[in-house]
Write the structure tokens for this entry.
Amino acid sequence: MDLVPEPADEPTPLEATLARVGDRWSLLLVDALLGGPLRYNELQDAIPAIATNMLSQRLRHLEGERIVVATPYNDRPVRYRYELTAAGRELAGALRLLAQWSVNERGSGPEHAACGTSLDARWYCPTCDHVVDDAEISTVRYV
């Protein structure tokens, strides 16, 4: 009896997502661009630990995945402004959930500017216009 599972022909949704944006630098770039378009040097300033070759590589990868779009703003030399596509902006929710997980582990995170209370990420149903509690969530099955 062989107990080793056979590899699936198709990647799972999580595997496909990780192939698109599953590394540290890509997620940090998406996070930096959530505030609006930035130029290359502005991205370097936003993520000071990233090497220039890695920044270029990650931007090209994110462009290829249609998460980021580069728009030229100067002809000589050619310089670009980078901006999230609609698909890239959809990652904001996932980044909030990852940040919330870290907050739960470390005890610090984003706060409500009006009162200073730590913020919680919540599931929200736009059809019902309702914040959904854990007990109301049905299990999602990936195939």
Q: What stands out?
A: The chain is about 40% helix and 15% strand. Residues 10-107+118-143 form a domain with the Arc Repressor Mutant, subunit A fold (CATH 1.10.10.10). The first strand starts at residue 38 and ends at 39.
